[in-house]
Amino acid sequence: MKKTILLNNRPQGEPTVSNFEFVTEDNTLQISEGEILLETTYVSVDPYLRGRMSDAKSYVPPFQLNKPIQSGVIAKVVASKNKKFAEGDYVSGMLDWSTQQISKGVGLNKVDASKAPLSAYLGVLGMTGLTAFLGLQEIGKPKAGETIVISGAAGAVGSVVGQIAKILGLHVIGIAGTDEKIDMLKNEFGFDAGINYNTSEDINAELKELAPNGVDIYFDNVGGPISDAVLFNINRFARMIICGAISVYNKTELPTGLSVQPFLVKNSALMQGFIVSNYAEKFPEAIQQLATWLKEGKLTYTETIVEGFDNIPKAFIDLFEGKNKGKMIVKI
Amino acid sequence: MKKTILLNNRPQGEPTVSNFEFVTEDNTLQISEGEILLETTYVSVDPYLRGRMSDAKSYVPPFQLNKPIQSGVIAKVVASKNKKFAEGDYVSGMLDWSTQQISKGVGLNKVDASKAPLSAYLGVLGMTGLTAFLGLQEIGKPKAGETIVISGAAGAVGSVVGQIAKILGLHVIGIAGTDEKIDMLKNEFGFDAGINYNTSEDINAELKELAPNGVDIYFDNVGGPISDAVLFNINRFARMIICGAISVYNKTELPTGLSVQPFLVKNSALMQGFIVSNYAEKFPEAIQQLATWLKEGKLTYTETIVEGFDNIPKAFIDLFEGKNKGKMIVKI
User: Radius of gyration over alpha carbons of chain A, in Å?
Assistant: First the structure.
């Protein structure tokens, strides 16, 4: 029996479980020459998927109504008529939210369960790690001794960015939504300081204390008022990596806030939207580096693992309330 | 008799003539060894000076109360005890708003009145031309066939940016505040199209018609709602040069507007504050190129020349009502 999750209707504001539809098929899947049969092992849920649920022009086309949702998936090859893949292999790739599926193997990468836990290939050794590493390197251009602020710091990407920044010798300040998360940033991930945006009375003032030399790099996953507060603290030639804007993804009206332009002019500062897929030619080298750091124990990671295929939509929705620590993954 | 204009008090909102104080000194200026005596010929008034009248941290220190205002000036050497400068030379540099002054020559460049009108060294062959050329090149990275939108297009910098963009083969759309200015952009400066922001009912919709392939480069001199409208039209990998924000310089509250971050993420777009002085090592080459284009007739310019030292403050204030076409200069 094959279960699949389709986009039933597009969310207005916050996504809800009613935006998704579960369908079940009973017939056994048959593969043809060149194809493989996959059984899903882990499914990644990510904030950016919210954008694809809307019918708006963006860097990836929107999901279609009554078609499967797709995201990063780890799957096991259970039958193969494709020379590149053997039964028992594990692969990662953009795949349907489905318990089983047939693929020609295009866009799939084999992953090695002996080198790292399979789920890591969706996180620190997958798009998450690549986003953190390449966003920081390519736009942030970090230099030892500089100060970086990371919003959404306890999330999948943010927690990796902070650790890499520490490896590179930066002073690292994370912004997250609970004291427990702030503790984790400092004690597990080695951040120098953290701000709980839910209890802070004045993020701008707290930053001035924690970053007395100003902010050289801002790795932004959230947008909104937190990012406005950071603007008051940027240094000349600051670089701001706009990786996500989870605080506004569910807004039904266009979000407004401080005009950033005067801050950019005053500081000759840079703000750039970052999409990891633009840097595909750098993936192999970046994965190598991440794997090395992981092996050396310089890089660690946290996952929030939810069990059960039926819980995928709920896990996705929980992202917007910050219920995850680190990477949110559903184990099938 | 020497007349000087001091900063009397800092403007709240719009600058007024009462922010300035005229002082007169009767004693004859005497130069020492290494010094030159200068008589002011032309004074540049520029929107960025508004920032220096405030007491806020920025890329240049604020003007001090009861001290002379400074800006770009062309002056004649009327006496010299400095080997580098002879009586009769003309120089350009950052100098006091004063009819006469003594200098050691540091930071002054000789200008050649036989090669171009003296006032051009404050405009197209000075900071204005350098700002237009280097902002476009270094951040805009223009490619033939792309579409550029320029705000403040009839101003000193904007009108040069548009002409350079045409030389480089771009499709050029200017935004300015009167039909007369739009006519000038199209008929004198060769812009492909223009939008009068004072009469346009929907700048976003007009842009969609004039730039059906979207906007690759936005050269922004104004900020505010005009820039918000441009955001809806940017292409993937768009570059936005934030050169000025004249629409907000006189605001007493922090300006707000559309959150730019979601637009940047969606389009992998870049927004960068530009200050010409960061690119000083490229000045000689850039001036050479501008002078060549000027000589070849590919580049032209407009000036609004106001006569009389006493009119400097008024000329400066008029900038904020867009009373200038091209470079605003006061002839002494």
Answer: 20
Taking only the tens place, the pLDDT of each residue in B190-249 is: 999 999 999 999 999 999 999 999 999 999 999 999 999 999 999 999 999 999 988 888
Of A86, A273, A36, A266, which is closest to residue B259 (Cα–Cα)?
A273
Question: CA torsion B245→B251→B256→B258, rounded to 10°?
Answer: -40
Q: Are B252 and B12 in contact (CB under 8 A)?
A: yes
What is the three-class DSSP state of B2?
strand
Give the bridge partners for A176, in sequence order: A196
Q: To 5 degrees, how large is the angle CA A62–CA A64–CA A66?
A: 150
Are A271 and B268 a contacting pair at CB < 8 A?
A: no
Are residues B29 and B2 in contact, defined by beta-carbon separation less than 8 angstroms? yes
Q: Is A266 on the interface with B (CB under 8 A)?
A: yes
Domains of chain B by start residue, with CATH: 2-122+301-331 (3.90.180.10), 127-277 (3.40.50.720)
Q: Which residues contact A1 (CB under 8 A, 6 or more apart)?
A: A24, A25, A26, A99
Share the mean pLDDT of chain B: 95
Which of B246, B264, B268, B270 to mutate against chain A (most A CBs within 10 Å)? B264
Of A236, A258, A278, the CB nearest to B256: A258
Of B163, B129, B158, the C-alpha closest to B290 is: B129
Amino acid at A295: K
Q: Do A267 and B59 touch (CB under 8 A)?
A: yes
Asked if the C-beta of B131 comes within 8 angstroms of chain A's C-beta atoms, the answer is no
Beta bridge partners of A258: B256
Q: CA of A267, closest CA in chain B: separation in Å?
A: 6
Query: Which residues on chain A are in Cβ contact (under 8 Å) with B267?
Result: 59, 273
Contacts of B241 in chain A (CB under 8 A): none
Name the DSSP letter for residue B153: T
A277 to chain B: closest CA residue:
B268
pLDDT digits (tens, 9 = 90+) for B147-170: 999 999 999 999 999 999 999 999
What's the confidence (pLDDT) of residue B251? 85
Distance CA B26, CA B141 (A): 52
Give A262→chain B minimum CA distance, Å: 6
Interchain pair A263, B274: CB under 8 A = no
Q: Which residue of A has its CA nearest to B239?
A: A272
DSSP 8-state assignment for residue B193 = E
Q: What's the length of chain B? A: 332
Q: Are the beta carbons of A298 and A124 closer than 8 angstroms?
A: no
Contacts of A248 (CB under 8 A, 6+ apart): A223, A224, A255, B259, B261, B262
Give B158's Cβ-side CA count (13 Å radius): 37
Neighbours of A113 (CB within 10 A): 15
Location of structure tokens 């706009």: A242
User: Which two three-digit tokens encode residue B324?
Assistant: 């200038």
Q: Please, which residues bridge with residue B92 across strands?
A: B74, B109
Residue A177 touches partner B, C-beta closer than 8 Å: no
